[in-house]
Amino acid sequence: MSQQPSKIYVVTDHTSVSAQRGNVADLARRSAQRAVLEIAQATGGGIVTRPVFRDRPDLGMKITSAKPMLGMQIAAHLELAAKRLAAEYITHAREDGHTWHEIGVGLGLSSADESGTSAAEAAYEYAAGKPLLGRRSFSWVCPACNGAVTDRGPEAGHPADCEHGHHTNCPRLGAAVAKWHALWEGED
Fold first, then answer.
1. Which of 43, 45, 134, 135 counts the highest number of beta carbons within 10 A?
2. What value does the mean pLDDT take over residues 95-102?
3. Which DSSP string do the residues of 160-183 spell out, in sequence order?
4. Mean pLDDT score, 18-26
């Protein structure tokens, strides 16, 4: 039996950001549920039918899902795949000139949580992962100079210290350095 492709609806209204995030989160959850079921079916895995309301099986309402252990394994693989995909989009965002703060806000990270971590630092930690040998980095290609940039994150200080790998006289790095100097001059 062939299935119709799922329709994707793009939210284009100007409702609040939190309402849009809620819609996106709900769409993502439903898409993940469909993906688990589709992968289970495609791999010949076990499919089960369960009552929608476990305390009211007499209603006859049922839902089809993957067997629990298989569904759990598929969901874990989807989580890793989604994390890799998020990292790809973060790479594109950095290449397009978005700041770590903008990425943090886009990821729904707070501007300062209980630990005092900024949205920028939380986004960097999400993207770069756990530090290896005391250091972590995130790599992307600068479209202005074509340099392979090793990004040390928003808290590393001067832009030249944060982003190693820009070519000499890179206009993007030059603009970041000028902005950094202007901010520090404003502090005096």
1. 45
2. 94
3. HHHEETPPTT-HHHHHHHHHHHHH
4. 74
DSSP 10: -
Token pair 């594109």 in the structure block, residue: 92
How far apart are the C-alpha atoms of 70 and 58, rounded to whole Å?
A: 27
Q: How far apart are CA 63 and CA 42, in angstroms?
A: 18
Q: Which residue's structure tokens are 């790998």?
A: 165
Q: How far apart are the first and last CA of the chain?
A: 71
* 183 domain-assigned: no
| 186 within domain boundaries | no
C-alpha distances in Å from residue 16, one per residue of 26, 51, 70, 102: 15, 35, 37, 17
Question: How confident is the model over 119-178, as pLDDT tens digits?
Answer: 999 999 999 987 777 778 899 999 999 999 999 998 878 899 999 999 999 999 999 999
Residue 128 in any domain: the answer is: no
Please, are residues 166 and 143 in contact by the beta-carbon 8 Å criterion? Answer: no
Q: β-strand 47-51 against 148-151: which pairing, if any? A: unpaired
Residue 44: domain span:
1-96
5: pLDDT strictly greater than 70? no
Is 163 part of a structural domain of the chain? no
pLDDT digits (tens, 9 = 90+) for 100-121: 999 999 998 876 556 678 899 9
